[in-house]
Structures
1.
Amino acid sequence: MMDLSITTRDLNLWYAKFQALRQVSVEIKHGLITSLIGPSGCGKTTLLRCFNRVNERYGYVTTTGEIRILGKNIYDPDVSLVELRKSVGMVFQRPNPLPLSVYENVVFGLRIHGERHELERARLDEAVEKALSEVGLWDDLKDRLDTKASTLQLEQQQKLCIARLLPLKPEVILLDEPCSALDVDGTRAIEELLFSLKGRYTMLIVTHNMAQARRASDECLYMLLGEIVEHRRTEDLFLHPQDPRTAEYIEGRYG
Amino acid sequence: MTLHGRWEVGGGSRRGAAWSVLFTGATGLATALILAMLAVILVNVAWHGWPALSWRFVTAGTEADMFEVGKAGVFPMIFGTTARVILMTLFVIPVGVTTAIYLHEYAHTTSVLTRVIRTAVANLAGVPSIVFGLFGLGFFIHFLGDRLDLVLHPDNPKPIWGKPALLWASLTLAVMTLPVVIVATEEALRGLSPGLREASLALGATKLQTIWQIVLPNALPGILTGGILAVSRAAGEVAPLLFTGAAYYMAELPRSLTDQFMDLGYHVFVLSTQSPNLEQTRPILYGTVLVLLLLTFALNATAILVRARMRRRQRAAG
Ligand SMILES: Nc1ncnc2c1ncn2[C@@H]1O[C@H](COP(=O)(O)OP(=O)(O)OP(=O)(O)O)[C@@H](O)[C@H]1O
Ligand SMILES: [Mg+2]
């Protein structure tokens, strides 16, 4: 099944005694944009954060079940968190550029992981130009690579947060409501960017905005109370929901 | 006060207004009182101390008689006080910062060990400084020092480590100011947004890399604030030095960490209690106090300047 990027089987997750994910089994296809919708508190962020194992930051989290990314169970003991996070990048709700320059934000991953010979100035320069070009920031920022990233506009910051993943050649990019801090133009710009990255990366995007899910994603997952209710092509899910709970949600009956 | 409160002249609000005026007046008075006291002290010291200040007074040691005007000099004391403050800073910052990092980044807030450390830190801050002096004597000089002598110089009858010294006095001060640095650093760590740490971790950085490259550089101004507070607290302290390193008189400057030193604060104490003729000694006494105050300000100002520069550099370079 080489066209699957992420598969989970019977994934359960508890925050201390509270169960936030229940028997989640999904298959996320390679190279597509899959959106994750559902009412507030249903576990979208939690599920997303399982895929790069940042949930484990909290000592009180317990997980059972299996998550395979590129065929490898990421909970296997021989999995290196560092390698996992290189291939599974994450973009957060609030743009969170590192408190460094634009340039250093883009090469942070390389500096952290790179062998010495990869850290030659020329190579880094090349990586910066490539990554910033991919997200459409190069022309705007090529003369301001030394400015502090936090002084950029929010939209640029969020693009930068995507750009800094790219030098690590990720397989999957997880995005948790990446547009919720942006205005209409910023939102459109990010959506266009995601569209342009399609095919090369598997993208999983959490959104509260159903119009965005419809516009921007190929497949759509509907979650409720920690369970996956429905997972189909976006068009089908919105036009012909199979589960009555999905129908209710997309007609706008829950928050 | 809202606009309504200001313009209405109903019965209830008039009473409120009266209270408000009274309260404002009381707080203003208290502030004025404190400023007045500070001014009296500073003016008094400056007024009486100024005449004693001369190039000779601050750049030379004492010849023959430390109680006699014209023959006294406080350079050895300036040297000693500066040295012990700088040494203390070198000890307290690494230990304090490491502890704060452990508490904030590694320890579980609910664990017994964390609670014990926090309680200890809080209580340490309330211990009178003379007790730190006794602790320094008991732990550093007699426990550590005596053992070092035994191991390093078994044949030497005279103690080298097991006696009051610049090293032990500085360490004692470091223990005393530890809570200040820990609390300030923790405050700084808490102030950083959690998104910052997650951004770094999600890029595959280890916890150590995250702390070293992202968390610490951003907490630096806060850490320096802790350092500044520690310097302020330690610079004028005398009690912790009494048994641990300050000397009544020394003909020469300390040459190594195991030498004793003369100290401005302790010298003020010596001048005011040991002088055969206090009237005559008074100008030197005031002069020494003035130098102590100026030195404390100078040490603080240096630390504040360093912090300001660091902030500016952070803002510029990112
Ligand atoms: N760190 C945590 N500790 C304890 N409980 C948590 C934690 N994070 C989330 N939860 C709980 O887990 C459930 C799922 O949270 P999650 O953040 O995954 O929801 P979400 O679908 O992303 O919601 P939203 O749309 O509001 O972002 C919620 O009930 C939440 O209260
Ligand atoms: Mg969420």
Note: Residues 166 and 256 of chain B are 8 Å apart (CA to CA).
2.
Amino acid sequence: MTVHFKQDTPDDSNRLDGMKQGVLGKSIRRVEGMAKVTGTAPYSAEYPIADCAEGVLVTSTITRGKVVSIDKDAVLSMPGVLAVIDDPAMTTRAAQGTADEAPQQEPGTVCYWGQPIALVVAETFEQARDAAKHLPINYREDPSAPLDPQAVEAEEQEDETVRQGDLDHAMATAAHSVDVTYTTKGHASAAMEPHASIAQWDGDKLTVYASLQMLNYNISELADALGMEEENVRLVSRFVGGGFGSKLGVSEDVVAAAIASKEVGRPVRVVMSRQQVFQCVMRRSETTQHLRLAADENGKLIGFGHHALVSNLPGETFAEPVLQSSHFLYGGENRDLMLEVARIHRMTAGSVRAPGEAVGMPALEGAMDVLAEKAGIDPVELRLKNIPEEDPEEGLPFSSHKLAECLRQGADAFGWDSGPRSPRHTCEGEWWVGTGMASAARVHNIAEAKSRVTLKADGSAVVETDMTDIGTGTYTILAQLAGEMLGLEPAQVLVELGDTKNPRGPGSGGSWGAASIGSAVYIACKAVREELGQRLGVGETELELKDGKAASGESLVSLLDGNDLSREGHYEPGDIKDDFTASGFGAFFAQVRVNRFTGETRVDRMLGAFGFGRVLNHKTARSQCLGGITWSIGVALTEALEFDPRDGHLVNCDLAEYHVPVHRDVPDLEVVLVEERDPAASPIQAKGIGELGMCGGAAAIANAIYNACGARIFDYPMTPDRVLAAMPD
Amino acid sequence: MTDTISVNGQQHTLPSDPRTSLLDFLRHDLGLTGTKKGCDHGQCGACTVIVNGIRINSCLTLAAMHDGDEVTTIEGLGTPDNPSALQKAFLEHDGFQCGYCTPGQICSATAMLQEIANNWPSDASESLEGEMAATGEEIRERMSGNLCRCGAYANIVAAISEVAEESA
Ligand code: FES
Ligand code: FES
């Protein structure tokens, strides 16, 4: 039985706080954690499938053109080689998040350097890798491949454009104004587990073990690519070694493995090399951002301008949504916002953790620091002054708004000095020491979701959905949620995720997972409770369940009387999506040291305070914030994709050359969780936290660099060469 | 030449293909998939195992080079029924998220604490001589070859510090 609930109005009933088990929100250990720390959790390449052949992708060494011929015979004679596959159904890019249909196919048409064009299948990985390296390919190159985003005419994304009032006039007449241009480099998700698939056919039924974030969409993307019915496809992703956007859409390995397995009549495994993950999945676009802020003599914004230029391949619908939070974070009645996309032949641009805010917020919050200095106002105070009452463009109310609390509690916990600020106030040996802060904002997303909850005759429970846990804590929070509702300890709740044979969840992405799938589980549990209540003769709202018993003393086991009780919950966001502006908010505070001779920046300490609705598990929520802050350090100081200007290929395509933060780059971090209930965010009053922790954090570091040494830098990342060049004598 | 290698106390015959890395031998030939492949180029530490007591990146060495060696992988450090102190501490401190770097972090930390106990210096050490201590900065420096893209570093250091204190 399925219970469908479409949410049109805020839910103030706050039922979860009235439950008796007392496990939701608690800081409990991950339920799948023991499998992870003992190496017994199977990731997609690790299923022990008998007779599995190995496939290695071959990628293009030209930027644009056609594959004229592939000399398959040259490698088919090599030891162990089974097949060379260049089927036109193979995909050449990863699908964009929620695409729901096949991405670009036809590997014979090359659109970017590094694009997959063939797959070599052999008995062993060593044989396949060797043959792939030796596969002769003839191309016909098309030399007209624009590569520089600044050199082509850009397309305006019209739905992002906002023009209110007269910003030029406001800028000209304002007491204080800031007009600055920031740049950010491209970023890679660089999830630690490379994309990998094992495909296996049983007649016309296909099963693929793959490393994907959104099975609900991926199954359609895969079925569409292969021209199959979805009911003949099963995707399994029980453990995903990180995603950060790179596994939102079906990737090239999945379709290639499926086609190859059919052709060789055996299961086939395809694991991308680290270089392939970098070069043929997704990049975050570089950005150029023009910020204009106009404020009155008290520092209150009267004008707000944010223009951004990003890039992508021709035909891709995704444009890094740089302005996402700029639309509502601060007031200012004269507004001018615009997003443009340059069409170039670098690899596909798509979602990398916190698309939009990850780069938009560091620019905006850097500009706010410049304004604070010009206006002579404490940076925390400047933000507090500019929090709008309602969405300044749409006129909508906010679902909830914790920015002020985050700023105040964060400043308090950090020990923020709100006195006058000027650079170079502290020197310790070779190091200038300074502090900086920034606001955090990340739009709240929510999606349709389904889940089945079964109370077993033995009094335990099972939660089933195709939702994934990419390290975010889904297994654990769903066990807590169902446990809370059904009066069970989380250990008595088995959560089965990552399999499309289960009811369809929303997938993990855009921080929408927990609130969306949690709401489906909540609805299913409520339906189970209703049935239990009827059996006991009490209403669902009066029913008290704790430790496997009702308040009357009757146990779940006796109420179930030898039978399972199962309900499916189907959550759908209705008018709440349109009636409110919903976002997570927060504040970052950082202290850095900048070396006066080398320009090297070290982060001494960093704190983030965040408000994102109900906290479902303090431990895993805090970990998500720690991860986000760690990414902020990468954005601020080290992470940058570098493209060859001659052919557009990604040069630093591995973990030695693309610098993600390492242990020694990350100090002790502090996280303040500002508890709230957001009734318009979801029935469980939760919002997402997977991305908020990196939305603005880089600016806290940039602003601290300025406060430390006086180098005001407008280009991320702030590498030593840039810091030195900007440092005053 | 014995053509055998000991893995977690069990003897195995070395692979016939000389190209097989120790990592692929463990993961593929022996089915010990707890050891992870993150880069295959010695850049991430996910493949860290302990060979004759020393931590190494198993992707950077060929299986054939380990004739007669003793290898310990994450599976050899502890099991779900009998986890090691570090495995328990990682669980308690949430020293991981996706879990993919985790076996490498734990193998690396296991051997790293021994290096400190043996007074081997690091870049973070004040002196090349004398007693080494498992300070936060020492742990961070010595663990910097183990990347965690989920950004669990702060919790990993907390977990390792706890075990270091207990055994000190
Ligand atoms: S897989 Fe060996 S260091 Fe990355
Ligand atoms: S836990 Fe995911 S990479 Fe470390």
Note: Residues 4-77 of chain B form a domain with the Ubiquitin-like (UB roll) fold (CATH 3.10.20.30).
3.
Amino acid sequence: MSISVGDAISSFKIPILMGVMVIFGFGIGYLINYTFFSDRSPVQPINFSHKIHVTDNNIQCMHCHAYVDKTPSAGVPSVKKCMGCHKAIATDKPEIIKLTEYWDKQEPIPWIKVHDVPDFVYFTHKRHIKAGIECQTCHGPIETMARVTRVSSLKMPWCVDCHTEKQVENGRDCVTCHK
Amino acid sequence: MAKITDKIKEYTRPGYYEKFDYHWTMSIDLDRCTGCGACVVACQAENNLPIVGEKRFKERREMKWLRIERYWEGEYPNLKLKFLPMLCQQCDQAPCETPCPVAATYHNQDGLNTQIYNRCIGTRTCAVYCPYEVRYFNWFTYTWDEPLEQQLNPDVTVREKGVMEKCTFCVQRIRMAKDKAKDDNRRRVKDGEVTPACVQSCASEAMQFGDLNDPNSKVSKMTKNKRAYHVLEELNTKPSVVYLQKVEKHD
């Protein structure tokens, strides 16, 4: 005597179909969320492209992120710095008109933070840059990105793994990173 | 297994603590202390401590990493008042460190008794074990009213309900001093480069702070003073805070 699996589940056809649909739906929802709404790559108020500036026009990172080797935070350039170039460059483009509006209103651009460690963590760019670590090690190929995307997890194992590998002095002591 | 036994051997070796990178130590000269309370206020401002208010204070929920204890001696006409600033003693053999079930408090290589707030689950065991009563528990989440939140120190976490906290010897200032030393290509911080908020604010310079492993630092010299003692020395907690006895006239 044999029991056919097909016969056994045929009476549960509808519930099983519904289950599959739900799982499928979740999958699609997750993908939509991941590609369009994730905090890895938020849509910025101005469509600023690192590719145009860094790769196409050869502007150095430090020209805009001027504090990266001097202070804990890298800092995002002020509107004044943008206007230093964009008073003359590409002034008729819609994105630049938006930029000029911020400048006329004397308001900062509300950039959305992509890389963010929690407030209880002390992270310093200065030490890492002075130790000779490239921006790309942590931030990925920024110079090719039309919109900034976070590639590293920025979670604790990510920090500690590298500190272990590079044998950072006291790099695994909790109060080095936790404040 | 061999690794663990090696570790145990290392940690129980006599003089292990002398091998610390630094041994941050504070000396408090009670003869100079006037009990003015400037250190208490400085600590409150530096470390984002909340003002708990009268009601909470009466319920003994006050938050003060540094408090000035008063000791009255004698009867009315011959009354004497003595002050004792009491803060975390950063004990080398700290009773508070061993009982923590999640190891949120531990001893680091600089001789600091540290507290990792986000690791803490709030069992309050450490506070029970502390003989100096200097650990404070956040019974509530305190908020700062409108303009006051602007004065919060960004280098110190704002703690929430359910977390134990205590004096850190202003670890954020130690961190900054080390950072500066690295910029100047020095391996060690110079004496006098680190001043915790309380030490900085002490008008009569009763407090000194520095590295005990450096024999020429100000604190090292203070600890060799004849008047130097530890509070509750008999408990063998080996505190890193050294008090210098008050000089008294004996008839």
Note: The first strand of chain B starts at residue 24 and ends at 29.
